[in-house]
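Format notes (please read before filing issues)

Several people have asked whether sequences and structure tokens are stored in separate files. They are not. Every record keeps both together, in the order shown below: the sequence lines, then the token lines. Line labels are part of the format and must not be stripped during preprocessing.
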Amino acid sequence: MEEHIYSATGMAARLRSQWDRDDGLGQNHNAVKFLGQDFGSLRGQCIQSGRLFEDTLFPCASSSLGFNELGPRSSKTQGVRWMRPTEFCKRPEFIVDGATRTDICQGALGDCWLLAAIASLTLNDNLLHRVVPHGQNFGQGYAGIFHFQFWQFGEWLEVVIDDRLPVKDGKLLFVHSAEGTEFWSALLEKAYAKLNGCYEALSGGSTSEGFEDFTGGVTEMFELKKAPSDLYSIISRAIERGSLLGCSIDISDSKDMEAVTFKKLVKGHAYSVTGVDEVVYRGNLTKLVRIRNPWGEVEWTGAWSDSSREWDSVDRSVRSRLQNRSEDGEFWMSFSDFLREFTRLELCNLTADALQNSQLKKWSSSLYQGEWRRGSTAGGCRNFPATFWLNPQFKLILQHPDTPGQSACSFLVGLMQKDRRKKRREGKDMETIGFAVYEVPREFVGSSGVHLKRDFFLTHASSARSELFINLREVSSRLQLPAGEYVIVPSTFEPHKEADFVLRVFSEKPANSEELDDDIKADLPVETELDESQIDASFKSLFRQLAGPDMEISITELQTILNRIIGKHKDLKTDGFSKEACRSMINLMDTDGSGKLGLTEFHVLWEKIKRYLTIFRQFDLDKSGTMSSYEMRMALESAGFKLTNQLFQLIILRYTEADMAVDFDNFVTCLVRLETMYKTFKTMDTDNDNLISLTFFQWITLTMFA
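Then the structure lines:
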């Protein structure tokens, strides 16, 4: 099991980070500095010292190349040297005559998916320079340092690298330009490898992943055997809108991987779609599609290929506008051949911030960060009704139908799992993920402080769901539902699978969305502190016996008493109350500040523990003597505490044993702690506005002794 221990400092850092993001950190113009490296100050230090930058955080070592096929013992990495372009090229350039698609030729790494995405990026200067900032070169001010920006799971990161590149036999090992003197694409690939842990982590993937990390957009997949009738106009509109497009041919078995078909198309290989056009051919309009192969030289040889006869029948001016006869890996084919030969098209829709103002058709979008944690929020799919309801829930309000007079509203949901490439080194890969959409029950319409519980999902069917649960980085579906309120429940296929995720909702017309969660509430029973004369005589004599001559119970005495009593309840599992737990109880009950409990204080605590015992037995449904984390959420609610997913997650991390179960002593300690924090806050919130202001002295006094 992965250990997830949240310290106070860790939680503070998370809260601080959220505040920074609320203030705009993570947008393209204010990117987060990856690994804390600041390009400006590092470059300044290099220029001042006259030394070229050496990046210690992505060293020129085998660990940066890979762990298996590109590992230290692999033949592919034997004889690799890390060299700066200035060391093996007479006149290196960053970009010559603008970034073009021929600058991107694949090397000894299976990252054609990434290169197809980079090729699409070169078609749009505005997009390219969000990823590849202006003003970088090997001329004046060169200091061996470059920087790039990538979108990662909801925010833009600035990644700094040095320009030492892996070279074998005098040539770049990985991506290179056709001319061999241009280095922006090789440096971009290195920065992306650093972001993902190493070069090998980039091997194998889907073009949509690159599209999204270069734009922050959301991708749709089209299976070309089931292509919608208006696909050509979808592609045409997408290219006009600056969207990025990629296509590929499925392989039927591993022998097919990168096999070349009769007409020179490569299976299992990622191509980019770079243009569409219509030409008059033999009196009819023929739809054409322009495609690029990142290998650079292997091109389609069928109809409309560079040297095919079809071009002889096309007007010369059209031919010279469309044709480029060099072996550059780019070619035209008819739209009908495209549908027949290719299997899949990936289309990346751009968000409003990546589009220029002149482009009117923009998506409305919302983004939520979430996590599935074993024992608290990793509920699995709806095949697991006992836990499905524990997954995070998000509300979507659709109120603007696509066309007036109709009720249908179109929207797109994208669910993306985070950081899985980085974890390949540890042998972890993608989880199987998906989502379901439910209509909000009438009684909860208009309210947000509700986390729908198990019974709702047992009695209601979903209104829509992701087409599949699949082990891709992102699952996205374009959906249409009548105007109304809906709940989106993202999940892994099986429960107890841990991952972080980002949920994005895009709609053609504005739509409101929010995370659906219980409001934090404490509805505690009124406790009456009895006068000594009202306390039962047998309880008094028990107290005298336990408390000794000073008639007060100390921490050690409380520990002895509780453990002796708990030991008699053979149906409860416990490893005994710790000193720390007893200190928490005394803190809660000690009204006179003596650090010990008098008779009336101990009586109130005793009644409280008896109530907790009743709740514990009621929700220990399987009579195991412990409480599963799922039973725990219901038990906390019965004890008066409504908590958000995040708070519940923290409680599970702190109070469960290794098997994710809560034993009785931890159950009591948790409730005592919650009640202490609640009462402390309420005492200090004198104007009842849910805000308190503390000096450092007050803060440290409270936290050290709470």
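For reference, the curators noted about this record: Residues 1-6 have pLDDT under 50 and may be disordered. The first strand starts at residue 32 and ends at 33.
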